[in-house]
Design goal:
The complex is a heterodimer of chains A (320) and B (339). Chain A has helices at residues 9-28, 35-44, 46-60, 68-85, 90-114, 119-137, 147-154, 167-185, 187-197, 199-204, 209-235, 246-256, 268-288, 294-317, and strands at 142-143, 156-159, 163-166, 237-238. Chain A is mainly alpha-helical. Chain A is globular. Chain B has 339 residues and is mainly alpha-helical. In chain B, a hairpin with a 2-residue loop joins β4 (166-167) and β5. In chain B, α2 runs antiparallel to α10 (214-240). The longest helix of chain B has 28 residues, at 2-29. Classes of the chains: A mainly alpha (320), B mainly alpha (339). The A-B interface holds A 64, 111, 114-118, 120-122, 124-126, 128-129, 131-133, 135-136, 139, 248, 251-252, 255, 261-262, 292, 294-298, 300-302, 304-305, 308-309, 312 and B 73, 120, 124-127, 129-131, 133-142, 144-145, 148-149, 245, 254, 257, 261, 267-268, 299-307, 309-310, 313-314, 317-320.
């Protein structure tokens, strides 16, 4: 008999839950169980998947990044100002914002490491800072009008009949693959897990803590910036109050994806499933039509609780 | 003895000095800032306004100070505000006129929410950030569920008094803050509870070996935080004569955490001062007023707030203090060379 390695249990539970929810929807509603709905889940949540992948790195290392949503908003605002007001080409703007975002994350990581502050409060300040900067640049929503944006959003191809794979889906899948390789098959990935497992042991093993911590937060901010760019592909605008609370969605997705919040354990693939589960709940509620949207929040809260309880159970029963 | 007294003094010195500096800046920019009028049995003036506006955050900060002292954090207080407001509004719109039931419903909602947090953190040993995140996400949904997603408005003179009434010339929210402050202060400083809270936060394993029931202590602080949040939520609801589950108390949990941190508390737990937390809340509100008075557009609000947090945090960091000291040292050396 095939025996499941215990370390895959949370991941397996997450995957089963996704297929269960999707199956229930497919049985209950006509047109739910189609490839089209599934690929819409991917394209609608592409920016969240990208941000959540960054959050997974941070949480694996035992930290937390609350600045994600604000960085997404700031990215949108900077992009829209540079493109619409100054008429820069998006392909010139994107590298600039990506470098800026990465530097922002690196600074937060440096403050966390060198001044021995809690990631929670540093990234909270970062969140205020990014939102503040965004609203200083512009308080109004700025539309983005550029031929390149139209081309990007029109780009894509159909699969399985009527399912659509757009540019944001492609970007998010590429990010996911890259993240899986980095997290599970590189030296840096191993260091992230080691720091999350036990920072002191990791330091004694000779892992460069400063380098690793700074890189982790830089990656998270880089991906948040990329998520902001992808987000602007849907909205065609930049707004300082956009993407409020995305950091919490990302954290919830990572937890539902089976990553241990104390760090050191989890899989990138689980995060994808976490986002998809949240997306399925939303799709289910919109298909149903009679349930109100606030049920989404309650269901996600309930799921969060169940998964955290499951984690506690696994941690406690694990032989030491 | 002398040393510890000194340290204690220094702890109080910085936040109070900060508030004083802000007040002086305000007075320089706008001399009318300190004018207080007495009209219709009530004080009016910018200072009273600051106190009144700071009241919800001050209430949250009192509860948050205790939670942070145990080494935890409560992200759900903003959502609890929404739940408590919705619970009170529910009874008012159902035609209940008895003020005790209306306020009792709000407080009970806050107590239950706090107890859930306490259960998760204390008895299931889930990390506080995550445990309270659950209620932060789900709480607003629950608040909307109570009134079927509507923004309900109501007219109830007794309940509105909570937000807009006055007592002894002071706005009633300010009176509520003072009462809560005194009660919590007595509870923590005249009984051993305060010492227990600090012990659990400062060294969990040592306090465990001493026989302290850390679970029950954590439970009690989250319950107090829930009650404080419920009070703040009812003030907010009474103020606008309605319950808006989406926006009531939005982001106030962050302001409350900030207030406690500005008050000099360590997020790692340990020593706490409710007084300093309230001062922290006042500093945040005064800073907002300073920004408005100085003619800086309000859009700079967040940026200035963020800079303030970073500076306060850096000042608390031992390494930064050392670096500052070195800078001074070099400056002195240069002077010495010149001489």
């Amino acid at each position: 008999m095939l025996k499941l390695n215990p370390k895959f249990i949370p991941l397996a539970v997450t995957c089963c839950l996704f297929f269960l929810l999707f199956g229930v929807g497919a049985i209950q509603f006509e047109g739910f169980g189609t490839p089209r709905v599934f690929f819409n889940l991917l394209s609608d949540n592409a920016f969240l998947i990208i941000a959540a992948v960054g959050m997974t790195f941070v949480i694996l290392s035992g930290g937390i990044d609350l600045s994600v949503g604000a960085v997404i908003a700031l990215t949108g605002v900077v992009c829209s100002v540079l493109i619409s007001k100054y008429q820069w080409h998006p392909l010139v703007v994107f590298p600039i914002v990506l470098i800026g975002g990465t530097a922002f994350g690196a600074i937060m990581g440096a403050i966390i490491h060198y001044y021995k502050m809690q990631p929670f409060i540093v990234t909270l300040a970062g969140m205020f800072f990014a939102r503040g900067l965004a609203s200083v640049i512009s308080e109004e929503s700025i539309p983005i009008e550029h031929e390149f944006y139209n081309q990007v959003s029109a780009f894509g191809f159909e699969v399985f009949g009527d399912a659509w794979i757009g540019s944001s889906t492609i970007i998010c899948l590429l990010v996911l693959v890259a993240a899986i390789i980095i997290a599970h098959y590189t030296r840096f990935g191993g260091r992230v897990y080691a720091v999350g497992g036990d920072a002191n042991s990791a330091a004694l093993m000779g892992i460069p803590l400063a380098h690793t911590t700074i890189r982790i937060y830089a990656i998270s901010a880089f991906l948040a910036t990329l998520a902001g760019i992808v987000y602007s592909f849907y909205t065609f605008s930049g707004y300082s109050l956009a993407a409020v609370g995305v950091e919490l969605d990302a954290i919830a997705a990572v937890v539902i994806g089976g990553t241990l919040l104390t760090g050191g354990y989890g899989y990138m693939f689980g995060t994808l499933m976490g986002v998809l589960i949240m997306g399925v709940v939303q799709t289910y509620i919109s298909f149903d039509g009679t349930l109100s949207s606030w049920w989404t929040k309650i269901v996600i809260g309930g799921l969060l609780f169940c998964f955290i309880a499951l984690q506690q159970l696994l941690v406690r029963t694990k032989p030491r | 003895m002398n040393l510890s007294q000194n340290q204690n003094l220094r702890r109080y010195l910085w936040p109070c000095a900060g508030l004083l500096v802000l007040l002086i800046i305000n007075a320089i920019i706008a001399p009318e800032f300190f004018q207080i009028e007495f009209k219709d049995g009530r004080f009016y003036g910018s200072l009273i306004d600051v106190l009144n506006r700071a009241a919800p955050v001050a209430l949250l900060a009192i509860g948050m100070a205790l939670v942070i002292a145990t080494g935890g954090v409560d992200l759900s207080v903003g959502s609890i505000m929404a739940i408590a407001g919705a619970a009170s509004a529910y009874y008012i719109t159902k035609g209940v006129d008895n003020l005790a039931i209306i306020i009792g419903a709000g407080l009970l909602a806050g107590l239950i929410a706090g107890a859930i947090n306490g259960l998760l953190v204390g008895y299931m040993s889930i990390q506080p950030i995550v445990a309270t995140l659950i209620l932060m996400v789900a709480g607003r949904g629950i608040a909307q569920l109570m009134n079927e997603g509507q923004i309900v408005t109501f007219d109830h003179a007794g309940f509105s008094f909570l937000g807009t009434g006055d007592f002894l010339g002071l706005p009633f929210p300010v009176v509520l803050v003072i009462i809560t402050f005194i009660v919590v202060q007595l509870l923590t400083r005249r009984t051993a509870l305060g010492l227990y809270i600090e012990a659990v936060g400062a060294n969990p394993s040592a306090s465990h070996y001493m026989g302290l029931n850390a679970k029950a202590i954590k439970m009690s602080v989250y319950c107090v935080a829930g009650l404080c949040a419920a009070l703040a939520g009812m003030i907010a609801a009474a103020d606008i004569k309605g319950s808006d589950a989406n926006n009531a108390g939005l982001w106030l949990e962050l302001d409350a955490i900030l207030a406690v941190v500005i008050g000099g508390a360590s997020l790692m737990g340990g020593r706490f001062s409710i007084f300093l937390a309230v001062i922290g809340a006042l500093i945040i509100q005064t800073l907002t007023v300073t920004i408005i008075l100085s003619g800086i557009p309000p859009k700079f609000n967040l940026l200035i707030k963020a800079s303030a947090i970073i500076i306060v945090l850096l000042m608390q960091s031992p390494l930064f203090q050392k670096q500052l000291g070195q800078l001074n040292f070099w400056a002195k050396k240069k002077e010495a060379k010149r001489a």
